[in-house]
Amino acid sequence: MPSSPSRGIAYYFEIAVVLIGVVGTAANALILYAMVASKQHGKQMLIFNQNVLDLASSIFLVIAYGAKLCSIPLTASAGYWSCMWLLSENVLWCPILAAKLNLMLVTIERYIKLVHYKTILRKPVIHLAVAFSWIAGFALSIGIALSTTDLVDGVCLSYVFWSSRASQLAYGIFYFTFFYGVMLLTFVFCYGRILAMIRGQARTMAAHGATASNSQQSLAHRAQLSVIKTMVLVSAFYAVSDLPMQVYYLLLNVNANMTIIESGYYVSLFVSFLHICTNPFIYAAKFDPVKRVLLSLIPCTETGTAQQHG
């Protein structure tokens, strides 16, 4: 957190973050309903898990920043555990880190399935990938938060008490390298190969004329393209929205004497949190099965469809 924080800036930032959490909770819950209604939760298990993690992140965003707004008295054991879990944002970063890992696993799964046609991606493997994202994300967040946070004279000091300067430096470099550098390279390589393959398939189908366009293969191709477009947009927005905070966090851990500019810190964190509540809108706009379910919930759409078929 910034040194010498201005309560005025922090207060309005916390209100804005709670609003993001409320919008994200409602939007992600609606997308989860649409995925279940369209029976995509079984077909696209990792994508469904991504939405579950985004929903959990939104809920804990409201809880963690609601606690900050309430100015909970930090006394006795209740104050200590409030510091360790709520005010340190530990409870929030558990699902956020899990969602980041899952997003990379979605990318790898799409690549293996579409480019290499591997049969190893059966349900037990996907279940293991889902479990890994939750376990690894929660373990990393809890391990770092609990070991570097403490309550001192009624003040919650989070991510301050590192065992050594070297460990802080190592973690800062690891976090940026893995959760931004490695993930970005994974996105570019995997989706680049996938899109190249899809373009090749489109040229092959075009060469077979109009008959092929109505075939089962063409329908499967369009379904694949809908999923890929959705995940490319989700990954691209992650790369853009998370960059400012990633750079800030890296600089903080590399340069122990760095003074944070409050406005820059809050703007960077706010943009990073936006990714949680904007993902549902990408699914609603680009993921065809979800889009159809959501459109069916609009009465005028159903009426218009009935009139067209009448």
Question: Could you explain the architecture of this structure?
Answer:
With 310 residues, this protein is mainly alpha-helical. It contains twelve helices and two strands; from the N terminus they run H-H-H-H-H-H-E-E-H-H-H-H-H-H. It has helices at residues 7-37, 40-43, 45-70, 76-87, 90-115, 123-148, 165-207, 209-213, 216-254, 262-286, 288-296, 299-309; strands at residues 150-152, 155-157. Strands 1-2 form a two-stranded antiparallel ribbon. The longest helix is centred in the middle third of the chain and has 43 residues, at 165-207.
Task: Give the key terms.
310 residues; Rhopdopsin 7-helix transmembrane proteins; 12 helices; 2 strands; 2% strand; disordered N terminus
